[in-house]
Every structure is written in structure tokens, then in C-alpha cells.
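Please check these two lines:
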Amino acid sequence: MAVRTISVLERQARLASRHRIRAGGRAGTVEEAAAAMVALHGTEPASVYLSAFARVGRLTVADVDRALYGDRALVKQLAMRRTLFVFPRATLPVALAGASARVAAEERRVILRDVAKVGLHDDGPAWLDAAADAVLAALAGGRSATMSELRDELPLLGGSMTHGEGRSWAGRSPFAPRILTLMSARGLIVRGDNRGTWRTSRPSWIRMEDWLGAPVPVVDAGGAHDELVRHWLATFGPGTDRDLQWWLGSTLGAVRRSLGSIGAVEVDLDGARGYVLADDVEPVDAVDPWAALLPVLDPTTMGWQERAWYLGDHRAELFDSAGNAGATAWRDGRIVGGWHQSDDGEVVVEALEDIGADARAALHVEADRLTAWLAGVRVGTVYPSPLMRRAAQGDRRRPGRLPGP
């Protein structure tokens, strides 16, 4: 049977219809939006809210707070690529078994290596297990506590190591946060209520079972990996095995085994080998023109490793040197620029190419919508793109800045 070719235009149409970021296809709830994307990126707390706002027709900060902390329908979990995500509760078991377990194994290995390096404990594994047991005991009965509170009351969480000797950024790294990170990757504890604002992260830690009210179902690791591949293809497909390897933080061998296990179908992506689900081979209709503004580390922008088909030549302006995406402006399935906020909180779009009057007007509509929603609140980031850094330094002279409609 001939291999079907899926063009760039069709890939962009699939993105538009499945990622819920066009005005005519937004989700009704934040839970629906998160499920459409497999998970939302949670590294930057504000991005969870801004990614949800881009995908939900009517949304308030309270709506996201309800899903995260009230109904607990969305759960923060360290998973793929040692990145914090916000998963729908139904997806959490496969995330824990298919991605988080691998992260936990590496975290444990590195902690024990560093403990041995500084000679902190004679028996590193025994100390690490005892420290985890002490945390679980301290959180018994549904108690929650911040990392600082736990460190102050549990001597086993003490200790640190130096880093960056001889460098300007040299200092000491405590082991306590790393122990909690390991425990969270194992699914023992979870980030519960946030004692900061929606734009800052000051989590309290609580036992996972207490937070959810029931144990997380245990699933087979291989089957969970298969399910994550299936979820990714449903949202991001078609894509390459390299895209999947990167997104999962997995190995190429494991990805290819899962592709075979779920019966993924090979397609041609402009000469590259891609994959779709077996029931997702038929062509997808084009959608009406659309525009969107997505935040730092949005799951759409970060969905693939091979990004030329939607990013073009704009990587140097919109990604930092580590590959973290800044705030982006989209038109019809392509990134055409970025956005930032002025000193008074106005959302300002900067085009990085000639996009035409219709696209400028559509992006202004989205900028006005986001400006009104933020209501003067300015959102910071530790992952600014080069475009965002220049804006923060007061450079408003760039010719790409969109004039008024």
C-alpha cells in the first residue's frame, strides 16, 4: 500500500483543529483543554493559566484554581524530560509509569552520586530511603507542608554540596529540594495547594494518595509508554520518531517499539518518515483563518523537536539557547512573531515577517483579549526569548512591532 503524504498545510490544519487555539474551536473547560494537549506545561506557573486562557472560550483564574486545587481534576507531576506538567487525572497513571519512573531512577542515581562525592553519608541509599520515610511520616494524616517547613523539622533533609567553584554563580545546593523532587517523580508526594499567587510557585507538599483521595492505579510501564505515544499521536501527529523520543525524554528504541505495539501507520512528511494512528490517516479539512497568542513553554510550541514546518526561520528570536520557547504569535498554524507586555501591562505583538493586514488585525484582536483578561497584571518569566529580553530592556524601535489596526 502506498504511503500517504501529509503536507505542511495539512499538518497546520490538524494543529488548528486539535490544539483548541483558534477562536472557533476552543474548549469549554480547562480540563478539556488540558486533555486535548495530553498535558499543559507547568514549569512556569503562569503558563498553565495563559495556556488555558488561549484554549478556553471563557476562563477566569478561579476556573483554573478550581481544577487544580478544588476539584483536583488536574495534577502537577514531574514527567517527560524531567519537566513539570499538569495532567488530567485520568492520564496520571500512564504518566507516572511511562515517564516519571524513568525520571525518578535518574534522579536517585544523581543524588547518590553527589552524596558519595561530598562524603555526606556512609550509606547513601539507606540515608535517602530514611529521608523519604521521614517526609512521608511528617505528612501523615493529610498534612501539607512547604519544603522549608519540612527541612526545618527533619534533620535527615539537611546537607548540601558546592557547585560552580571558581565561577561567578558558585554557591551551595541543598539536598532537601532534590529529595522532594525524587519523591514527587515516584508519585509518593505531590505539589498541593500553592501558597503563592497564580504567577508564582510556593507549593505545599502532600502525600499523593491524600491529595487525590485514593491511590493512583498502578499500570505496566511498557503499556504506559505505549499509551503516552498514542496520546501524543492523537494530539501532535503526524510526527517523527525523533519528535516522540524528544517529547517523551525516552529512547529511540522504546519509541519504535511503542509505535509498532499500537499499530501506528507510516506517512511521508515532505521526504521524512512520520507516523499517525491507524484511524487517523484520512485527510483533514482546512480551517478558517485564525490567530493565537501562546505563552512561554506552551505545549503547542514545545510539541515537536523538528519545528521548521511551523517555526520557519524564527528560532533564534523566540527560543533561548537551551531550547525553551518564549511567548509566540501564531497565524494559521505558523509562528509569525512573539509578544510581550508593556510597562503598563498592555500585550504588544511583534511580527517577525510581513504578515499582511488581515493577520495584523486578527493578532490585535487576540492582544486586546489577553490585555483585558490580565487587567494590568504583568507576568514575568525566567525563560525570556531574545525578543522578550529586548522588550524588557526598552527597545521599542524594532520595525516588526505591529502598528494599530
User: Anything to note?
Assistant: Residues 307-392 form one domain. Confidence is low (pLDDT under 50) at residues 396-400. The radius of gyration is 22 Å. Residues 47 and 135 are 29 Å apart (CA to CA).
